[in-house]
Write a structure and sequence with these properties.
Layout lengths: L20 H11 L9 H5 L5 E4 L14 E12 L9 E7 L2 E7 L4 H7 L5 E11 L2 E5 L3 E3 L10 E4 L8 H13 L10 H7 L4 H9 L12 H27 L10 H8 L7 H15 L5 E6 L5 H14 L3 E5 L3 H18 L3 E4 L5 H13 L4 E4 L13 E7 L6 H8 L6 E6 L5 H8 L3 E5 L9 E7 L3 H13 L3 E5 L7 H19 L4 E3 L5 H13 L4 E4 L12 E6 L7 H8 L9 E7 L5 H12 L3 H12 L24 H17 L6 H12 L4 H8 L1
Parallel strand pairs: 4-6, 9-14, 9-15, 10-12, 10-13, 11-12, 13-14, 16-21, 17-19, 17-20, 18-19, 20-21
Antiparallel strand pairs: 1-8, 2-3, 2-5, 3-4, 5-6, 5-7
Helix pairs in contact: 6-7, 7-14, 7-21, 7-23, 8-10, 8-11, 9-10, 19-20
Length: 700
C-alpha cells in the first residue's frame, strides 16, 4: 500500500552511518514514533532541533566574553600534561594576536591530543569560553580543525534533544545522512496555497531545519517550520475526516422514539437540568434522529453533569428496544458511574449492569448470557467491554468517558459490535478549541458550561510548605467540626519507591498528629484495598484520605469539603484543576490548599496564581496551553502538542483551522484520493503515521 517513492524514508535508522545495534536502540527510544518497532529514517528527520549554536562569532581571545561560544584562529603553544596517575586536567596553551587561552581536558587520550593540537601549528578551534582568575579557558572544545578544513565546521549548528549515551556528533552525522536520502516527492499542496504562503517544498523545508542558514530558520513562525507544521496538521485532519466519513458510510439508524424513557430519567433527578445540559441533550437527540451515525464529543468541566446527559441520551436508544454501553478508563470510574446511575435507572425502569476485569468467570458468563438475551439494557464497564469476546444482542449506542485515554482504533472496535452504532465521547478535562480540532476533528462538539444549581465555588489558597504544621492543625480543626479532607501527595516520576515512601510517611504523620485512623490510597494497592479505603472515607468511618493522583478522576464524595495538594508546584494546571474538582460537589463551601515548596519558578508561580483566580476549567485549559504548549492538557507529559512532533498548538493554532477546512474540501472533491494530488496526499498520510486512514479507504 505504501508508495515506493517513500521506501528510503522507511528504512530502519540502522542503515545510516554510525548507527550500530547499541546506538539504534538509543535513537529508537529518542525519536521512534511507535514503541513496538525500531525507528525509521523518517522518524529521525522529524526529530527537529530545539536551538542553534552560531559559530560565526570570531572576536579574538581577548575580546571573548565569559559564557560565549566563539571560534578562534590560534597557534598551539605548550602542552602541560599532568603527572601520571594524577586526576589534574590536561592543559594546552594557545595564542592569537590579542592574547592567550588555555584548552582544558579531563581524562583525555594523550596521543589524540598531541595529534589534534600539535605544538607550533595553527588550528581553528570552537567552543565555550569561560574566564577563571581573569584568564580565559575553553573546556573540551567542540571543534579543532586545520585551517584548510575549516569549511567542515558548520557556521550555524543545530542542537537536538538527546538521550543518555547518545552524543550530539553521532546524531548529527546520522541526520545529515538521512537528509541526503530525502527523495523528490509529489507536491500535495496546491499551487495557489504555495504561492499565497511563500512556503518552500517539503524536502527544502526539512533540509533547512537540519542545516539552517540563519538563527530564525527554526522559529515556529519561519516558513520552513510553518510548512512542516501545516503538513503534519493536514495529515491529522485528513485522517480524522476519513475516519468520520468511514463511520458515516457504514450507515446509521434513525432513532426517534417518543422520548418517554428520557423524560422518566430526567424526572427522577433530584435537581433541574442546567441550560447547557438541556441544550446538549437536544443536540444529541437531533443526531440520533438522523439516518447517519452520531460521532459527538461532550465536553464538561468537573461536576458539570456529563453523566446525566449521557444517561438521557442512552435512554433514547433503549426506548427503541436497543442496548447501550458506557466505557470508562479505570475500574474506580466505572464503579462510580454505575453507583451514580443505578438509582436513576431503577426509577426509570432501565436494566443496568456492571462489567469489569475483576468479575469472576461465572459472573462474566452470566452477564454475557444476559447481554445476548437482551435482558440488560445498559452495561457500564472498563476496556473489557471492547474485548473480542463481549457481544451484544442489539448495541445501538456507546458512550466513552475520558476519551483521550482511548484511541481511534478502540472507538471503532466498540462501535463495530453493533449495527449503525452511535458514539458519544465525554471528557472532564477541558480542552482548548485548538486542541479539540487536533484530537477530535472528526466529531461534533457539545459543551457544558454551567454547573448544577446549589454548587458552591471552591476557595483556593496557596501556602508554603514551611507552614505545614499550621495546615495540619487546621485540618484537625476541620475534621473535629465533622468535615472530610483529601490530602494528595505528589507523583515522583523518577521512582515509584520514593513516591510510595512519601505518601506512606504523610499518612503516618497525619495519623499521629490527628490521633485517629486515616485512609490511604495509592497505585501499588490492589483493587480491594483501594475500594475498602474509599468506602471507609465515603461512609465517614475515616475523615481524611491520603492519596496519590489515583483520585484525580472519578472519585465522588459529595460531603468532602477540603483538599490539600502537597508540592502543588510539581503538577500541571489541568491536573491541579481535576484534583480540585474532588471537592465542591455538595452544597457546602469548599476549599483547596496548594502547598508549595519555594522558591517558585515563573511558570509554577503563574500556575498557582491562575488556580487562585478562577474555577473555570475552560479558561484554565487555555492558560495551560499558553504555559505548556499543550503537552499536559490531554494527560500526557511531553512538550509540544500531544501526538505531534512538529506542530504546536500554541504557535500554530491558525494553521489547525486552515488544515481542517482544507481536509474537508479535499475529501469532498476526491473522497478516495484517486487523483494525482490524492496520490501525493497518500504519501503525506504515510509520512506522518496516519496510514490507518488509508486502510479504512480500502475497507470501505
Amino acid at each position: 500500500m505504501r508508495p515506493p517513492v517513500l521506501d528510503p524514508l522507511f528504512a530502519p535508522v540502522s542503515t545510516l552511518p554510525g548507527i550500530g545495534p547499541k546506538i539504534e536502540k538509543l535513537v529508537s527510544g529518542l525519536v521512534g514514533s511507535q514503541p513496538d518497532r525500531d525507528a525509521t529514517v523518517a522518524d529521525l528527520l522529524f526529530h527537529i532541533p530545539h536551538s542553534l549554536i552560531d559559530r560565526r562569532h570570531r572576536p579574538g581571545i581577548a575580546y571573548s566574553e565569559n559564557g560565549d561560544i566563539v571560534t578562534l584562529d590560534v597557534t598551539i603553544g605548550r602542552h602541560m600534561a599532568p603527572p601520571r596517575h594524577s586526576k589534574a586536567p590536561y592543559r594546552i596553551n594557545a595564542y592569537d594576536e590579542t592574547g592567550q587561552i588555555t584548552f582544558v581536558f579531563f581524562h583525555p587520550r594523550r596521543d589524540w591530543l598531541e595529534k589534534t593540537f600539535p605544538e607550533g601549528e595553527r588550528r581553528i578551534v570552537s567552543g565555550k569560553v569561560e574566564w577563571f582568575n581573569e584568564r580565559p579557558q575553553m573546556v573540551h572544545p567542540d571543534y579543532s580543525l586545520k585551517p584548510e578544513e575549516a569549511e567542515e565546521m558548520p557556521a550555524i549548528e543545530p542542537v537536538y534533544p538527546l538521550t543518555a549515551g547518545l552524543s550530539s556528533k553521532t546524531l548529527q552525522k546520522a541526520v545529515r545522512a538521512a537528509v541526503d536520502r530525502v527523495p523528490h516527492l509529489p507536491e500535495w499542496l496546491n499551487d495557489a496555497h504555495l504561492h499565497q504562503t511563500g512556503w518552500p517544498d517539503f524536502a527544502e523545508a526539512l533540509k533547512t531545519l537540519h542545516a539552517p542558514h540563519e538563527r530564525n530558520d527554526i522559529d515556529p513562525a519561519s516558513p520552513f517550520m510553518q510548512r512542516l507544521a501545516y503538513d503534519e496538521l493536514l495529515a491529522s485532519q485528513l485522517a480524522l475526516a476519513m475516519v468520520r466519513a468511514h463511520m458515516r458510510t457504514l450507515g446509521g439508524i434513525s432513532r426517534s422514539p417518543k422520548g418517554e424513557l428520557q423524560k422518566a430519567v430526567i424526572a427522577s433527578l433530584p435537581f433541574q437540568l442546567t441550560g447547557s445540559q438541556a441544550k446538549a441533550i437536544e443536540e444529541i437527540n437531533g443526531d440520533l434522529a438522523k439516518p447517519v451515525r452520531m460521532l459527538r464529543l461532550l465536553q464538561g468541566d468537573v461536576g458539570a453533569g456529563k453523566t446525566v446527559v449521557a444517561l438521557a441520551a442512552l435512554a433514547q436508544v433503549i426506548e427503541t428496544g436497543a442496548q447501550g454501553a458506557l466505557m470508562a478508563p479505570t475500574e474506580i470510574l466505572a464503579r462510580q458511574h454505575y453507583a451514580s446511575m443505578l438509582p436513576l435507572c431503577e426509577k426509570a425502569g432501565i436494566r443496568l449492569a456492571l462489567m469489569t476485569g475483576k468479575d469472576s468467570q461465572k459472573e462474566r458468563r452470566l452477564r454475557q448470557e444476559q447481554l445476548d438475551a437482551g435482558e440488560i439494557d445498559l452495561v457500564v464497564g472498563t476496556h473489557a467491554l471492547f474485548q473480542g469476546t463481549v457481544t451484544f444482542r442489539n448495541l445501538a449506542m456507546v458512550v466513552v468517558d475520558e476519551q483521550h485515554r482511548f484511541g481511534v482504533h478502540q472507538r471503532l472496535a466498540l462501535s463495530a459490535k453493533g449495527n449503525g452504532v452511535d458514539v458519544l465521547v465525554m471528557t472532564a478535562t477541558p480542552i482548548p478549541r485548538t486542541l479539540v480540532l487536533t484530537g477530535f476533528g472528526d466529531m461534533d462538539v457539545s459543551r457544558l458550561t454551567d454547573k448544577p444549581a446549589g454548587r458552591k465555588p471552591i476557595t483556593t489558597v496557596s501556602v508554603s510548605l514551611d507552614r505545614l504544621d499550621e495546615i495540619i492543625g487546621r485540618v484537625g480543626a476541620a475534621v473535629a467540626d465533622g468535615q472530610k479532607v483529601y490530602w494528595v501527595c505528589p507523583l515522583v516520576e523518577e521512582s515509584e519507591k520514593i513516591d510510595l515512601a512519601a505518601v506512606e510517611e504523610r499518612h503516618r504523620v497525619l495519623e499521629h498528629a490527628l490521633r485517629q485512623r486515616v485512609s490511604l490510597v495509592h497505585g501499588r494497592m490492589n483493587a480491594d484495598e483501594k475500594d475498602a479505603a474509599m468506602a471507609d472515607f465515603k461512609s465517614g468511618a475515616t475523615k481524611v484520605l491520603v492519596a496519590t493522583t489515583v483520585i484525580e478522576v472519578g472519585v465522588d464524595v459529595p460531603d468532602a469539603t477540603i483538599i490539600v495538594i502537597e508540592h502543588a508546584e510539581r503538577f500541571g494546571l489541568a491536573q491541579l484543576h481535576q484534583l480540585r474538582g474532588r471537592v465542591g460537589r455538595g452544597d457546602k463551601p469548599s476549599s483547596c490548599v496548594l502547598l508549595y515548596k519555594g522558591p517558585l519558578g515563573e511558570t509554577a508561580g503563574a500556575r498557582l496564581n491562575i488556580m487562585r483566580q478562577t474555577n473555570d476549567g475552560f479558561l484554565i485549559a487555555e492558560e495551560d496551553l499558553k504555559l505548556r504548549g499543550g503537552g499536559e492538557i490531554l494527560g500526557t507529559r511531553q512538550s509540544g502538542t500531544p501526538g505531534f512532533r512538529i506542530a504546536r498548538a500554541d504557535e500554530h493554532a491558525d494553521l489547525m483551522e486552515v488544515a481542517r477546512d482544507d481536509a474537508r474540501l479535499i475529501l469532498e472533491l476526491d473522497p478516495d484520493l484517486k487523483t494525482k494530488r490524492g496520490e501525493a496526499l497518500r504519501c503525506l498520510l504515510y509520512l506522518f503515521g496516519r496510514d490507518a486512514a488509508i486502510r479504512l479507504l480500502r475497507a470501505g
